[in-house]
Amino acid sequence: MAGILSYLVFFLCVVLVLCILTMGLNLQWGFTGLFNAGVAGFYAIGGYTHAILTAAPNPQLMGNYGLPWIVGILGAVLLTALAAAVIGLITIRLRGDYLAIATFGIGIMIQLVALNLERWTGGSQGITRIAKPMGAAFDTPMAYNLFYLAFLIAVVVLVYWALERILSSPWGRVLRAIREDEVAAASLGKSAVSFRLQSFVLGSSLMGLAGALYVSFIGFVSPFDFLPILTFQVWAMLIVGGSGNNRGAMLGALVVWGVWASSGVLVSKWIAPAYAAQGAAIQVILIGLVLVLMLLFKPRGLIGERAVVSRHLVW
Amino acid sequence: MILQALVDGVFTGAIISLGAIGLSLTLQIMRFANFAHAEFMTLGGYLALAIVWMIGPGSPTLGLTFGWQLLVAALLASALAGLMAWGLDLLVFRPLRRQGAASLVLVFAAFGAALVLRHVLVLIWGHESYFYTRELQMGVMIMPGMRVMPDQVFILALAVLLMVVLHLFLTFHRTGIAMRAMAESPALSQVCGIRVDSVMRTTWIISGFMAAMAGVFSALTPQLHPELGSNMLLSVFAAAIFGGVGSLPGAVLGGLLVGISENLFLLVADPGYKPAMPFLLLLAVLCLRPQGLLGERSS
Question: What's the complex ipTM?
Answer without folding.
Answer: 0.86
